[in-house]
């Protein structure tokens, strides 16, 4: 828009009189024009813009929506996975799997999700179907608790295979995620490899992601850093409570590390976003490379809704990028990568002061009280996909 002040300076002669008459009006015209191209950011927009999104995620805001683009690749994956053999939808034992390299199982995606910034609870819930139901801060997607048969709970049905070095590799990794459906890596529960990056030890959970109905996703710690159990959540794994970003309280979903079907979002409390053709948000619904299950190209999937719940409005469909390709797309360069390692956690005491440390010995002057083996996540420069 032309600057009114500049316009006045260009006028001369008789035009100066017109400029003087219009001078009081022009600021109002400018204000109206400015109001048409700007908007007041909603609390959710401000919170999302300040959240700890990883470098492979891009957010843009348009009207009452946020548009999220990502390659779908997480900040950490195992080197190998127990891959279901051909024709096996959900493995039940080590006989149903074989060892597969991550670089042959996970493909970069072209994810593009448009999600409302003003979520509202719907008159009735919508069961979460198979496939992506939300996206997390590291750019990877979250699925519901179930595997391809619609009834096996992923976090309770892990299957392992041992390599030639004696190392056991699971169908599901220690971050509650794995490859599947069109080469798409996804989570079935709270990923500690993400929360350990965005949250401080002993502190509250911060924004971990957003579901397709617009409600935010958090880890399993409340505003005081205390564990949130599934007994505190509603049937969709949601709760209204304070968070660091919304100290007055807000309805949000909670992902847990519980070994049950309450590990992730069971249903949408709001109205899930639909694609332009009326289906669920796109995200790749083909079969895992080398395994049976839903064919590439989308279509109905086995399993269906939660028992007693309403039918989902639509199934997800596959985007072209999710089809199997001869050569996986290379991993982009991340700011940080984290690798899961086993470590010893010591509780040390000096007088009345107790300190928890990771290491083989307590600090000078401290006495070891107890110890246990834990999984921790450390920064590494090793790329998980060449």
Helicity level:
10-25%
Task: Using the alpha-carbon principal axes, give the shape.
Answer: globular
Strand order of the largest sheet: 11-12-8-7-13-14-16-15
Count, helices: 6
Could you list the spans in which at least 5 consecutive residues all have pLDDT below 50?
1-37, 284-338, 379-386
Category by helix and strand content: alpha+beta
Query: Main beta sheet, described?
Result: 8 strands, mixed
Q: How much of the sequence is in beta strands? A: 15-25%
What sequence of helices (H) and strands (E) makes up the elements? HHHHEEEEHEEEEEEEEHEEEEEEEE
Rg, alpha carbons: 25 Å
- The total count of strands amounts to 20
Q: What do the pLDDT scores average to?
A: 76
User: What's the end-to-end separation, in Å?
Assistant: 49 Å
Describe the structure.
By secondary structure, the protein is of the alpha+beta class. Helices cover 12% and strands 25% of the residues. It has helices spanning 4-10, 14-22, 26-37, 43-50, 102-105, 192-198, and strands at 57-62, 65-70, 80-84, 97-101, 111-116, 126-127, 134-136, 141-142, 160-162, 168-170, 177-178, 186-187, 207-211, 216-218, 238-241, 250-254, 267-268, 338-350, 353-358, 367-379. The strands form six sheets. An eight-stranded mixed β-sheet has the order 11-12-8-7-13-14-16-15. It has a three-stranded antiparallel β-sheet with strand order 1-2-5, with no helix packed on it. Strands 19-18-20 form a three-stranded antiparallel β-sheet, covered by helices on one side. The longest helix has 12 residues, at 26-37. The two termini are 49 Å apart. The relative contact order is 0.16. The model is unreliable at 1-37, 284-338 and 379-386 (pLDDT under 50).
């Amino acid at each position: 828009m032309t600057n009114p002040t500049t316009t006045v300076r260009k006028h001369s002669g008789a035009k100066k009189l017109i400029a003087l008459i219009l001078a009081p009006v022009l600021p109002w015209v400018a204000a109206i024009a400015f109001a048409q191209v700007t908007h007041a950011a909603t609390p959710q927009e401000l919170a999302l813009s300040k959240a700890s999104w990883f470098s492979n995620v891009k957010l843009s805001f348009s009207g009452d929506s946020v548009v999220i683009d990502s390659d779908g690749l997480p900040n950490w994956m195992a080197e190998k996975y127990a891959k279901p053999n051909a024709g096996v939808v959900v493995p039940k034992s080590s006989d149903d799997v074989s060892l597969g390299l991550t670089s042959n199982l996970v493909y970069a995606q072209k994810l593009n999700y448009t999600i409302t910034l003003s979520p509202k609870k719907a008159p009735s819930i919508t069961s979460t179907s198979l496939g992506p139901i939300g996206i997390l801060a590291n750019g990877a997607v979250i699925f519901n608790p179930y595997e391809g048969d619609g009834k096996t709970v992923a976090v309770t049905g892990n299957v392992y295979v041992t390599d030639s070095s004696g190392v056991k590799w699971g169908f599901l990794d220690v971050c509650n995620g794995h490859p599947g459906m069109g080469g798409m890596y996804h989570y079935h529960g709270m990923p500690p490899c993400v929360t350990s990056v965005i949250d401080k030890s002993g502190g509250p959970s911060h924004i971990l992601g957003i579901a397709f109905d617009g409600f935010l996703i958090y880890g399993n710690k409340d505003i005081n850093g205390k564990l949130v159990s599934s007994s505190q959540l509603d049937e969709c794994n949601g709760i209204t409570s304070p968070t660091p970003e919304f100290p007055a309280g807000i309805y949000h979903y909670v992902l847990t590390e519980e070994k049950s079907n309450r590990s992730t979002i069971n249903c949408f409390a709001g109205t899930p976003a639909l694609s332009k053709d009326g289906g669920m948000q796109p995200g790749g619904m083909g079969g895992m490379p080398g395994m049976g299950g839903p064919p590439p190209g989308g279509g109905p999937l086995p399993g269906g809704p939660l028992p007693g719940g309403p039918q989902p409005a639509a199934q997800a469909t596959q985007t072209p990028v999710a089809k199997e390709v001869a050569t996986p797309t290379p991993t982009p360069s991340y700011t940080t990568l984290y690798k899961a390692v086993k470590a010893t956690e010591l509780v040390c005491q000096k007088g009345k002061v107790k300190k928890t440390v990771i290491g083989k010995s307590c600090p000078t002057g401290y006495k070891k009280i107890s110890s246990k083996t834990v999984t921790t996540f450390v920064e590494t420069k090793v790329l998980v996909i060449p």
